[in-house]
Amino acid sequence: MRTGADVTSTALFLRNLTLTRFRSYTAARIALERQPVVITGANGAGKTNLLEAVSMLSPGRGLRSAAGEDLVATGAEAWHVAALFDSPDGPHEIATGGGAGGRQVTIDGKAAPQVALANVLRVLWLTPAMDRLWVAAPSERRRFLDRITMSLIPDHAEAATGYERSLRERNRLIRDQITDRAWFAALEARMGETGAILIANRRRAVAQLAAAQVEGPFPVADLALETDAPDTAADLASALAEARPRDIAAGRTLAGPHRDDLGVRYGAKDMPARLASTGEQKALILSIVLANARAVAASSGAAPILLLDEVAAHLDEERRGALFEAVLTLGAQAWMTGTETALFASLGERAQWLEIREGERGSEIRARNHPGRASVGRAKGICPSGTGASEMTEKANPDAVPPGTPGSGENICSRCGGTGKVDGKDCPECGGTGKVVTPIGGA
Ligand SMILES: Nc1ncnc2c1ncn2[C@@H]1O[C@H](COP(=O)(O)OP(=O)(O)O)[C@@H](O)[C@H]1O
Ligand SMILES: [Mg+2]
């Protein structure tokens, strides 16, 4: 395995993304390049919603841990998010959505379980809500660690689900005062097997994270798995058996890997993260997420997609520059939001720029020029389905590519040659319109 500091030349990145009746979006479609994505817009425009849509391409409840019904646009019955992405083994398509019947996933057109998403696409995120991770309950840090672990060891999700199933069953026996020894022993044996895998995976992930941290503008975090559980399957099973009377008295399983915590110390000051200043805590978590991205790149050979919500606004100029460099060095498609374009100005044409506004039919996404340039756009093409390409530009935005700009405007979609169809389905590039808006400098 390569070391964490390696620069990777490959990355997972979205080529297009379609949102349908997802939160504030009625219908939106964007085409993307591998570059970092800068997303600006006013408060409430729909920036976090867009990142959340991308996070739904991974297993779980996304970057807001939302209940399924919250994802559905008000008044609609089901949401849908689809994406075409590039990976070292070629392009893949993920489609997912949900309504009353729960969440469905297809990978390359075939129905798949949610956990299978972890094997094809890796998405890491950092949101403002995660700032309180160091003072939150251990369960939140454990979930954070499990997501990290899953990004490095995709099978982790399966072990975690297996352990939790047996744990729930054991807790049910305790609650229902069932004293069947053989039943307890069978469950404890299974908890031993899956639990030992959980602990081993978490230890491996913590070690990989530690190796992927680099001295620099972001603080090094000293990480440790804090567990009261023995390491081997047999020892864990017998510890559980021994603890049975105590657990029965308490009404639940008191010890085991379901109680693990991620211990984090602020390296430079050798102080627990929870005692660090607010700024130091923010820097620590960013440092861990970047280390996670490097570790994923090193172990899987491709940089993950990064979703960094409102991260740039909290960094001073030097650290902001360092963040951009870290992202560019990784080669990751990092989606970064903020209310001000000035925050990202130094990225210039090294990023693709999107602007989100609240429109009559919900949030609308437009390609925009980076602030340093007056008339040259970078985005490849934006075609919110259901709206004509001519609606793509708005006078209120001085940086938008105006209709009629030489070399820009409505062009024939290169993917489908203007037919709007690929393999009998709506063209994923233009959404079936056959046209894309291509500013100068675009595809
Ligand atoms: N299920 C939903 N249906 C319609 N609108 C929603 C839904 N959930 C959230 N919203 C709206 O989305 C907006 C917030 O979008 P968000 O992406 O968080 O904004 P920001 O650009 O500040 O990150 C709010 O106006 C909120 O009312
Ligand atoms: Mg937001």
List the helices and strands and how they pair.
Blueprint lengths: L12 E10 L2 E7 L5 E4 L6 H9 L12 H4 L7 E9 L2 E10 L2 E6 L2 E2 L5 H4 L2 E4 L11 H15 L3 H20 L5 H32 L8 E6 L6 H10 L1 H7 L10 E6 L4 E2 L5 H23 L4 E4 L8 H14 L3 E5 L13 E8 L2 E7 L12 E2 L27 E3 L8 E2 L2 E2 L8 E3 L6
Parallel strand pairs: 3-13, 3-14, 8-12, 12-13
Antiparallel strand pairs: 1-2, 1-4, 2-16, 4-5, 5-6, 6-7, 9-10, 10-11, 14-15, 17-20, 18-19
Describe the structure.
This protein is of the alpha+beta class. It has one domain (13-361, 368-375): Rossmann fold (3-Layer(aba) Sandwich), CATH 3.40.50. It contains 10 helices and 20 strands. It has helices at 47-55, 68-71, 117-120, 138-152, 156-175, 181-212, 233-242, 244-250, 278-300, 317-330; strands spanning 13-22, 25-31, 37-40, 79-87, 90-99, 102-107, 110-111, 123-126, 221-226, 261-266, 271-272, 305-308, 334-338, 352-359, 362-368, 381-382, 410-412, 421-422, 425-426, 435-437. The strands form 5 sheets. It has a 7-stranded antiparallel β-sheet. Strand 10 and strand 11 form a beta hairpin. Helix 4 (138-152) packs across helix 6 (181-212), helix 5 (156-175) packs antiparallel against helix 6 and helix 6 crosses helix 9. The longest helix is centred in the middle third of the chain and has 32 residues, at 181-212. The two termini are 36 Å apart. The site of adenosine-5'-diphosphate has 14 residues, from helix 1. Adenosine-5'-diphosphate is lined by residues 23-24, 41, 43-49, 70, 72-74.
